[in-house]
Specification:
The structure holds 2 protein chains of 2 kinds.
Chain A: H1 2-32, E1 41-48, H2 59-73, E2 81-88, H3 93-105, E3 111-113, H4 118-130, E4 135-136, E5 153-154, H5 160-175, E6 180-185, H6 188-202, E7 210-214, H7 222-231, E8 235-239, H8 242-254, E9 260-263, H9 270-276, E10 285-288, H10 298-308, H11 316-334, H12 341-349, E11 373-379, E12 385-387, E13 392-393, H13 398-407
Helix pairs in contact in A: 2-10, 2-11, 3-4, 5-6, 11-12
Chain B: H1 2-30, H2 37-54, H3 59-82, H4 90-112, E1 128-131, E2 134-137, H5 138-160, H6 162-172, H7 174-179, H8 184-210, H9 218-231, H10 236-256, H11 262-276
Helix pairs in contact in B: 1-5, 1-8, 1-9, 1-10, 2-3, 2-4, 2-8, 3-8, 5-6, 5-8, 6-8, 9-10, 9-11, 10-11
The chains are: A alpha/beta, B mainly alpha.
């Protein structure tokens, strides 16, 4: 018992002192200059699963890094070079907490850009807010980042709800189909798509003819696809991960079932999907927030990637790292030479219709979701993404959708 | 529709059967439920992938090479790791296999990354064969046939060869087998090798459909384990039957009742079976191996 008391005392002591140190340092440094900013550098933090089962998404933070390398090569911002700190969290929220604490307290980052995944980002959301570190573009289409709005946090990823809206709009108005079924991953990600689709269909007085859930580990989707086929759906919406997408279309091909497949930005890496499905992905349509004809220095972007990560091909995940970081560079520029977090947040708020790799990002006072639209794309015969519709803005009532998702 | 669903179940069951067979072989010879079995199969499948994609070797060379690798990996696990354990009890051995699993998983992720890879094999996964009104892809048909062939081979090996006799003798009574001049340690090591080869075949048959990544064997291993428990861990025919029952029940359950609970049904069945028949459906009951 005595030992236990000692232990508790030690834990309390350590906690108090470490909290004190964290707060003290940020206060004292803000009196002199801003945290993470020197005369010649600005330190930016980012993280993602560089290793482990979700390592495919590790290319997002690498993309962020390569983008700032591009900016540095062009001379930096107001004479300062961007110094990027990348941490590996293996997609494990407990590790994210440790990584982010380290970046805030030891590396003293000025701001965060990116950070991959709903669960890891949720684990650090409050901590980052408490420390008043600006955070742009968590890589997740959940609504937790901008609803309700939070002063330090800006979201540029299109919402799963909004993508669902755009998909349904495309199916009903462009394809003219109304027998729609859905297969979704049995978690927050999959259900966001499901709820979005259902709400968007209400407008047209339609209901899904079949809804089938899958687990992320499922390998045999025979009975899932049999159900979809049995429903007679002409269009099937998939809200799943790449492996499941490959298994679903393969199983359907065997059963002689060929609906119009529709999916979202998660499966927008057409090159990868085309390869792992041995060409079956051709003709699949998906919603996405990349403008493939964007007016950016594509050559410079790709050269910077090659310079920084010679083995890494230019994929959707890398590109999204660039997309997440673009508005940050703009806001840093707009903040002027005397950079502070306050000025930076102000500059982020003032961003209107900024289009880098995306279709246009706007923020405002109390408006923290940068984009509410998406366009539709199709995978071509040779695995390229082709845009087939203009940008469509979502009209989904988010409060209603959030409420529905909680019920699901 | 029901015929088609049963067919789907048999295909899934074939994979479960191979994994279950592999697990049950090592279990019988060493009382170790080898939880690294799945990752060993995954790793061997990557070896086949490297030979095919990087070195452009013909499929059969890559296939043979991968199986040879799998055999050596099995030997390695037993000779270099399990046998080195000091005074091991069953729990220690189990943890050793879990450790080996984590090691292989990490190594594969580090070496090949976690993006999906394509394993190209000369059997089509979308061209179909039709008989009795049922559609089956060539690859699925091949999966069933190879699985059956392998099961028969294991049966012949155990029943009609000297090696098989030695394996069985070691399984039944290691001390008595040793006294009779059977090199029991070598026999157990060989059993690990054979199990690993069976697992690798399952991996290679699965990879073209599910795509190859370090996570590919996690679910089949659990299902194979479930099938082995269901059928009775110490009866090889039992685990195979258990695997097919599991595959078919899952498929029917998923279609008629709920896909959401499809993955759980396997474990539900196990709980029920173990409650009424603790040694599995086809297992012979014994209180303690002496």
């Amino acid at each position: 018992m005595k030992n236990l008391n000692h232990l508790i005392a030690i834990v309390i002591f350590v906690t108090i002192t470490s909290c004190g140190r964290g707060r003290g340092s940020s206060e004292s440094s803000s009196q002199t200059a801003e945290v993470g900013v020197t005369d010649s550098t600005i330190t930016i933090g980012t993280w993602g699963p560089l290793t482990g089962p979700a390592a495919l998404w590790g290319n997002v933070p690498r993309g962020v890094d390569a983008y700032f390398h591009y900016i540095n090569e062009k001379g930096g911002i107001h004479g300062r070079k961007i110094n990027v700190v990348i941490k590996d969290d293996g997609f494990q929220p407990s590790k994210t907490v440790a990584a982010v604490r380290e970046m805030v307290e030891k590396d003293k980052v000025f701001a965060f850009v990116g950070g991959v995944g709903t669960a890891p980002c949720m684990a650090v959301k409050d901590y980052i807010a408490r420390n008043e570190v600006p955070w742009v573009s968590p890589a997740s289409g959940a609504t937790h980042w901008a609803y309700p709005p939070q002063n330090n946090l800006f979201s540029t990823y299109s919402l799963y709800f909004d993508e669902a809206f755009v998909q349904v709009d495309h199916i009903v108005n462009s394809l003219g189909k109304d027998k729609i079924a859905m297969i979704y991953q049995n978690d927050d990600f999959g259900k966001s798509g499901l709820v979005g689709v259902k709400i968007a269909m209400e407008k047209y007085d339609l209901e899904l003819v079949e809804e089938v859930s899958t687990e992320v580990t499922d390998q045999d989707l025979g009975s899932h696809v049999a159900k979809l086929k049995d429903s007679g759906a002409e269009v099937v919406i998939m809200q799943v991960l790449p492996r499941q997408g490959a298994i679903i279309t393969g199983t359907a091909a065997v059963l002689g079932y060929a609906p119009q497949w529709i999916t979202n930005s998660t499966l927008s890496d057409t090159e990868l999907m085309h390869k792992i499905t041995e060409g079956r992905w051709a003709g699949v349509r998906f919603s996405g927030f990349f403008n493939y004809e964007a007016d950016v220095d594509m050559e410079g972007y790709q050269a910077a990637l090659k310079d920084k990560y010679p083995d890494l091909p230019w994929t959707t995940f890398v590109a999204s790292g660039y997309y997440f970081a673009e508005p940050v560079a703009k806001a840093l520029q707009d903040s002027g030479p005397d950079l502070t977090r306050e000025k930076f947040i102000q500059a982020m708020e003032n961003i209107r219709d900024f289009s880098g790799l995306g279709f246009g990002i706007s923020f405002g006072e109390g408006e923290r979701q940068g984009t509410r639209g998406a366009a539709m794309f199709e995978c071509s015969e040779n695995g390229q993404a082709e845009q087939i519709s203009a940008l469509k803005m979502s009209e989904l009532n988010l409060d209603y959708a959030i409420e529905k998702l909680a019920e699901e | 529709m029901i015929g088609q669903l049963i067919m789907t179940g048999i295909v899934a069951g074939s994979i479960y059967a191979l994994v279950a067979l592999a697990m049950s072989l090592t279990y019988k010879s060493s009382e170790v439920a080898n939880f690294a079995q799945g990752e060993m199969a995954m790793f061997s499948t990557y070896v086949a992938f490297v030979m095919l994609a990087t070195y452009q070797l013909p499929f059969w060379v890559a296939f043979g090479g991968s199986l040879l690798f799998a055999f050596l990996l099995g030997l390695f696990l037993h000779l270099a790791i399990i046998r080195r354990a000091k005074d091991p009890n069953v729990l220690n051995l189990l943890i050793i296999t879990l450790g080996f699993q984590v090691f292989l998983y990490g190594l594969a992720g580090w070496k090949w990354g976690s993006e999906q890879r394509v394993l190209k094999i000369p059997v089509s996964q979308t061209e179909t064969v039709e008989f009795a009104g049922l559609i089956i892809s060539q690859l699925n048909l091949a999966t069933i046939l190879v699985a059956i062939l392998l099961m028969i081979s294991v049966y012949i090996l155990l029943r009609f060869t000297k090696l098989g006799l030695a394996i069985k003798a070691t399984q039944q009574n290691e001390t008595a087998a040793k006294i009779n001049g059977i090199p029991t340690r070598r026999i157990v090591a060989i059993t690990f090798g054979i199990s690993s080869v069976i697992g690798a075949v399952a991996g290679i048959l699965m990879a073209p459909i599910t795509t190859l990544d370090p996570n590919m064997m996690i679910e089949p291993l659990l299902k194979g384990f479930a099938a082995a428990v269901l059928g009775g861990f110490n009866s090889l025919a039992g685990v195979v039957c258990g695997a097919f029952i599991l595959g078919i029940v899952e498929s029917l359950f998923g279609f008629y009742i709920s896909t959401e609970f499809k993955s759980i049904v396997a474990f539900l069945i196990i709980v029920i079976v173990l409650y009424f028949k603790p040694s599995g459906l086809f297992g012979t009951h014994y209180t303690r191996k002496v």
